[in-house]
Each structure stands twice: as structure tokens, then as C-alpha cells.
């Protein structure tokens, strides 16, 4: 008998397995249908010996000291600040848009104050930003929207920005200064020996048993456990009772080149050409030195592994129906990106898992207090 069956060995499942095992001495069976731990953050060495991220580039960043401290128990870090270039009008320019982007595109030499005035001139006043198109044109105007956002979004989501919630594009800032970092969080770093090694260290505990290549449904009725933590897709758990929650997927095409460097930056976005959205060169992220280099091209798709919940109001409605079912299901907690149908960064999923652990512990302490009082 296990105390917990945890479905999914990504961040959500692994953090909870680690906490329950090490802090509450609970026995955990952690299963994943994939042949590896780490979920979408899994990394591995390719045939050339280069460390790649199998499910696309994963860059760690967080504003939370608690989350950074927690993960630091299982890995050292390599300081890394992420920068992205976009290929627009035949030039490679910083993205998110900043003063240098505007100057490079228009041959101007605006100062930060002047670029602010430029944005104010070109921005279209929109009272209630409903869609992603509204969110961008109200900040930087229609021309920059067309150059950087419109086609990229259509490729990425298979939808026009006018069909997507404002929240999608609102995540990308427009800056008036020279800051070309993609993220501005206080903690930005990559796990020193990779994500998979970090997960191995988390799960190396006598109370944790890991079962790979196994869908939980295959053995559910043969193994006994007290509680379940489920981090897979919430609609699949309920046999798609209300229909499928829409996801956007990505096909990854990896390539190794017989030279040390392939492109001048870790990530180059291609908003307006090609079927792929971006190319990532892994050695920039990992700091690995190697005479060859590996890159990945991302081709967004409708079909495939569920990666990005599609943020549209009707999908939120559908999710709320599944959420009600989840809340009414005893002895199962739904945690993580797929189980709560939200696009979360890795640190947010770690935060969600740590908060779930706190709830479990508090409930246990309350239970113990009641027992003692009785
Ligand atoms: C292309 C891409 C790039 C990203 N880049 C970044 C980034 O740069 N920075 C960042 O912070 N975040 C990034 N993310 C987000 C990050 O991947 C997630 O926040 C994180 O992996 C979520 O962890 P999770 O445990 O919730 O889900 P997952 O990692 O998806 O883990 C869920 C696991 O459950 C397993 N599972 C599902 N169903 C079953 C079943 N029936 N039986 C057994 N196992 C099952 C799956 O196989 C999977 O391994 C990116 C995501 C994508 C798609």
C-alpha cells in the first residue's frame, strides 16, 4: 500500500513526491507514461553528445526566493540571462521591442524619452483591450504589430490575434529603454548539469518509487494507495465527458551542425517567414563547449502532445465544468499545467506544487489536532 499515487513526473508531480517523501515520510508511487522523468522540462544528450531540451527550450526564471531556494537543494546553477532576436525586414533586432529595436528598424537614433513619444504617437487608443490585437496596437501601433506580432501569433496559435484573449500578447512588454533581456525576474539561471539531473536528485529518496512507460490506468486497480495526485490533462481524467479541451502543440525538428556556432543568438524568432516560429541553439542556454552544435526548429500544430491551452473565453468555460468535477472527486488533487488547464511557467508550477504540499500538511496537522482533542 502506497500513501500516494502521483501521476506525472514533471515539475508538479516530482516536487510533490519529493516533499511528501522527505518532509512527511510518506510512501509515493510516481508514474509517467513517458520513458523518462522531468515532464516537458526533460533534457538529454543527443547523438552528437550535445545537451538538448526534448520538448523545446526551457529557460528558468523566477521572482520568488522561496522557489529558487527550494530547487537549489537539488542543483547548482549557471547564471544565464535570456535574449531573443527577431528577423524582421531583413534585420536581426532585439525582441521584446525596445528603443534599439525601433532605431534599428527605422534608422532613427531615438533616446528612451523620444521612443516613448514615438509609441504614444503611433499607438491606437482602445478603451477596453479585449483581444491580443487590441493589446498590441494600443501599445506600439499597427505597423509594429504587423511586423512582430500578427503573423507570429497566427503561426503559433493558428488564430488571428483578434481571436485571442488580450492576456496572450499582454505578457510581451514594449520597452522604452535598452533592456534586451527576455525576462526581468530577479533569479535567472539554468540548472548546472541540466534539468534531468536535477529531477534525479529530487526523486532519489527511499520512499519514492518511479514507474516509467506506464499510464496510470494500466495498474490503477492493482495497486492500493490512500490518495492520488494527478498532473495529467484534466479532460482525459474524466474521459472527455464534456468534450476535449483545445491545446496547441508543437512539432520539434532537431538538427546538428558540423560547426561550433550556428546563429548569433540563443533564439531567433521568424515572425514573417517560414513555417517554423523560431530556432533555438542549445549551447547558448547550457554553456556546453563542443565542436558541433544542435538547434531546434518549432512548427506549431493542432495535433500532438498537449502543450499550450488555447486562451479563449469558451475554453475557459469548458475548463470550469471540468474543474467542478475535479473539486467533487474525493481523494484526488489536480495539480500542474495540464490538470488546471493554464499556461504556467516552470517556477509557477513549482509554486503551485509547494502550495498544495502546504495544504496537505496543514490538513494532516489539523486532523492530528482533532484526534488528540477527541
Ligand atoms: C515549448 C515549451 C517551452 C516552454 N518553455 C518554458 C520556459 O522557457 N520557461 C518556463 O518556465 N516554462 C516553460 N514552459 C512551461 C513548462 O514546460 C511547464 O511549466 C512545466 O513543464 C509544467 O510541469 P507539469 O508538471 O505541470 O507538466 P508536464 O511537464 O507536462 O508533466 C506532466 C506529466 O504527466 C504525464 N502524464 C500525463 N498523462 C498521464 C497518464 N495518463 N499516465 C501517466 N503519466 C501521464 C506526462 O507524460 C508528463 O510527463 C514551456 C512549455 C513548452 C510547451
TrEMBL record:
<comment type="similarity">
    <text>Belongs to the UDP-galactopyranose/dTDP-fucopyranose mutase family.</text>
</comment>
<dbReference type="GO" id="GO:0008767">
    <property type="term" value="F:UDP-galactopyranose mutase activity"/>
</dbReference>
<feature type="domain" description="UDP-galactopyranose mutase C-terminal">
    <location>
        <begin position="147"/>
        <end position="343"/>
    </location>
</feature>
<keyword id="KW-0285">Flavoprotein</keyword>
<keyword id="KW-0413">Isomerase</keyword>
<dbReference type="Pfam" id="PF03275">
    <property type="entry name" value="GLF"/>
</dbReference>
<keyword id="KW-0274">FAD</keyword>
<dbReference type="InterPro" id="IPR004379">
    <property type="entry name" value="UDP-GALP_mutase"/>
</dbReference>
<dbReference type="InterPro" id="IPR015899">
    <property type="entry name" value="UDP-GalPyranose_mutase_C"/>
</dbReference>
<dbReference type="Pfam" id="PF13450">
    <property type="entry name" value="NAD_binding_8"/>
</dbReference>
<protein>
    <submittedName>
        <fullName>UDP-galactopyranose mutase</fullName>
        <ecNumber>5.4.99.9</ecNumber>
    </submittedName>
</protein>
Amino acid at each position: 500500500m502506497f500513501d500516494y499515487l502521483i501521476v506525472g513526473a514533471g515539475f508538479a508531480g516530482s516536487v510533490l513526491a519529493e516533499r511528501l517523501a522527505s518532509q512527511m515520510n510518506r510512501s509515493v508511487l510516481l508514474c509517467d507514461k513517458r520513458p523518462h522523468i522531468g515532464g516537458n522540462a526533460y533534457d538529454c544528450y543527443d547523438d552528437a553528445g550535445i545537451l538538448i531540451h526534448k520538448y523545446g527550450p526551457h529557460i528558468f526564471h523566477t521572482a520568488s526566493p522561496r522557489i529558487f531556494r527550494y530547487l537549489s537543494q537539488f542543483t547548482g546553477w549557471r547564471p544565464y540571462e535570456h535574449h531573443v532576436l527577431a528577423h524582421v525586414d531583413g534585420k536581426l533586432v532585439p525582441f521584446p521591442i525596445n528603443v534599439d529595436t525601433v532605431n534599428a528598424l527605422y534608422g532613427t537614433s531615438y533616446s528612451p524619452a523620444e521612443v516613448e513619444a514615438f509609441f504614444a504617437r503611433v499607438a491606437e487608443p482602445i478603451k477596453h483591450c479585449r483581444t491580443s490585437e487590441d493589446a498590441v496596437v494600443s501599445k506600439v501601433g499597427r505597423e509594429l504589430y504587423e511586423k512582430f506580432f500578427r503573423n507570429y501569433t497566427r503561426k503559433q496559435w493558428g488564430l488571428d490575434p483578434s481571436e485571442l484573449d488580450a492576456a496572450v500578447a499582454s505578457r510581451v512588454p514594449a520597452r522604452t529603454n535598452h533592456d534586451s533581456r527576455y525576462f526581468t525576474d530577479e533569479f535567472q539561471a539554468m540548472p548546472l548539469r541540466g534539468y534531468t539531473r536535477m529531477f534525479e536528485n529530487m526523486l532519489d529518496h527511499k520512499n519514492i518509487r518511479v514507474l516509467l512507460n506506464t499510464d496510470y490506468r494500466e495498474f490503477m486497480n492493482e495497486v492500493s494507495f490512500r490518495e492520488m495526485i494527478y498532473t495529467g490533462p484534466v479532460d482525459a481524467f474524466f474521459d472527455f465527458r464534456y468534450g476535449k479541451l483545445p491545446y496547441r502543440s508543437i512539432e520539434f525538428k532537431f538538427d546538428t551542425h558540423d560547426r561550433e556556432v550556428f546563429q548569433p543568438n540563443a533564439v531567433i524568432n521568424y515572425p514573417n517567414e517560414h513555417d517554423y516560429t523560431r530556432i533555438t541553439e542549445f549551447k547558448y542556454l547550457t554553456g556546453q563547449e563542443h565542436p558541433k552544435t544542435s538547434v531546434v526548429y518549432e512548427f506549431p500544430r493542432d495535433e500532438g502532445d498537449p502543450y499550450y491551452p488555447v486562451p479563449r473565453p469558451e475554453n475557459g468555460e469548458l475548463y470550469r465544468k471540468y474543474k467542478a468535477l475535479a473539486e467533487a472527486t474525493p481523494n484526488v488533487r489536480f495539480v500542474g499545467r495540464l490538470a488546471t488547464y493554464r499556461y504556467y511557467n516552470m517556477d509557477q508550477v513549482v509554486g503551485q506544487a509547494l502550495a498544495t504540499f502546504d495544504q496537505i500538511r496543514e490538513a494532516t496537522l489539523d486532523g492530528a489536532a482533532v484526534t488528540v482533542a477527541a
